[in-house]
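Following up on my earlier thread - several people asked me to post the actual chain instead of describing it. Fair enough. Here it is, all 110 residues.
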Amino acid sequence: NAPSIGATAAYIMRHIDVIAESSQARHIFVTDNYYTSIYLAKAVLATGNDLIGTMRRDRGVPACVQLPSKKPTRATPKGIVLCSYDPIHSVHIYGWMDHDSVYILDTFSK
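Reply from S.P.:
Thanks for posting it. Predicted structure:
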């Protein structure tokens, strides 16, 4: 199962599996953009846990959330937020303009 989600996600899942097996509590795991992907989110949900993390634009950010520029402009000023829910994978993905564009994925705000 884990190798099909990619090497970086598989690395994180090995650690999550250890934590999930040692505790009955539901956990929220936080990752940075190096690790966060829709595939990792789906794998974490399968363990009964949740994930939130910043996300790279090229790791599955839908077009409706992609900000048109990497820096603030008049059309996309600082503070603008776009949001999309993917019901197939049970994730929210946000595009937020700060000093640079930021993308966030979460599995727990349904």
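The longest helix spans residues 7-22. That should answer part of your original question.
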